[in-house]
Amino acid sequence: MFFDVGAGEIIGLAILGLILVGPERLPKLASEAASLVRKIQKMSHAATAELRENLGPGFENLQPSDLNPKTFIKKQIADVLDENEATDVLPKPIVKIDPDLL
Fold first, then answer.
1. How far apart, in whole angstroms, are the C-alpha atoms of residue 23 and residue 47?
2. Structural domain of residue 61, as residue ranges?
3. What CA–CA distance (Å, rounded) separates 11 from 27?
């Protein structure tokens, strides 16, 4: 499930919600929470679309997870290595180990 929450935890949260909020107000609170989640999701999609538009060509398949610096750098390095393998522009580096560092 989402956020690695199991069925037992959902039942526990539902019982806790019944105790804290009360059975009269719980359905209204649940619908307001769902509405809030939908609004946040729409804002996220709009922000991602605007970011793609502002970045221009080459970023059509941009995902929010790609904005993590580690993921972004790995993706860019993989793209460069794929281009180099296809064209063999750069020679393969010779790796030498300095014995003083061992």
1. 37
2. 2-101
3. 15
Residue that is written with structure tokens 């719980």 in the block: 26
Longest dimension (CA), the chain: 74
Taking the mean position of all CA atoms in its chain, how far away is CA 102? 39
pLDDT per residue as tens, the chain (102 positions): 456 778 888 889 888 888 888 888 888 988 998 999 999 999 988 988 888 888 777 777 777 777 778 877 887 788 777 766 655 555 666 767 777 766
Q: What is the total count of domains within the chain?
A: 1
